[in-house]
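The pair is listed for reference:
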Amino acid sequence: MSKTALVFGATGQDGSYLCEMLLKKGYNVLAIARRSSVDNTERLKYCLNHRKFTMVRGDICDQSFVFSTIAKNNPAEIYNLAAQSHVGDSFTQPNYTIDVDLMGTLNVLNGILNFSKSSRFYQASTSEMYGSCFSYYSLIDGTRVESKTAISREDFIKKKCFQDELTAMIPNSPYGVAKLASHNLVKIYRESYGLYACSGILFNHESPRRGELFVTRKITSWIGMRKNSKTKEKLQLGNVDSLRDWGHAKDYVEAMHSMLQLNAPDDFVIATGCTYSVEDFLNVAFKHAGFGSWKRQVVLNPTLKRPFEVDALRGVSTKAAKALKWEPSYNFDLLVKEMVESDIDGHKV
């Protein structure tokens, strides 16, 4: 008999790829999405007519809905991808971010504890939980060094700094705070109540389905419009020096599923181990679009910078490689190329 998987946040980038993957594996998929006055199912268009796919309208912040849905379906696996996930917006909407990203998680954990204790639970954690903390190995004696202070991007690169499961976490945003609290709750419920509950500490992951408020998709969407003569305005960006570890969402949902197939639950960093700047993304995106230098077509707008920036991230997924046999299939160039080509095609008349 097919397993049933419950996916909160199914209409997002990760949720849509996850639902597609689970259907291919033979699951019955219950996709949870908030009711909206406009159609928010575009990313799920490949799932909507599948006989094993069911869309359920509801809000993860509604405890009675969460409890009743879990109790009624007793799913084998539950994935929580529901979140207010835009870091910048978390500064202007901190209460809402806490409600969704923290209280929503608590609702699901209590729902499992009280009504479906056999369900295996995946929580989407994030590299934003690290803030400016990082680790590196001393060039003097090879010992591991932990730092909780920001350093220059040059030193981050020179010292080969990284973040893994042991690196300290001191978030720089309300989003990071909410996600870290949920991350700790998962561990507490796992160790206190014996739940199969785990967190994936996912570093930045993109795709053509990424929302256009995020810098990578903002860039490729603008390229698509410019390439199809739909805009003459220059692209406005904030900080192009930030360093990020970018992977593809398709690879990362495979890791989510793998975490729930282990004999015992655990938390894992999921990342490529390679760091690129926003400027690097611009260079590669403009190259694939056949444009010239981005500097002639981009305006750096200081008002778009975050109040407290995470300057650099590089994840190490050694633990996931060993336990999950996971490794990314997309490299940076292929990821950017796919996003650029998708937006150029998408903006054609």
The first helix runs from residue 13 to 24. Residues 212 and 218 are 5 Å apart (CA to CA).
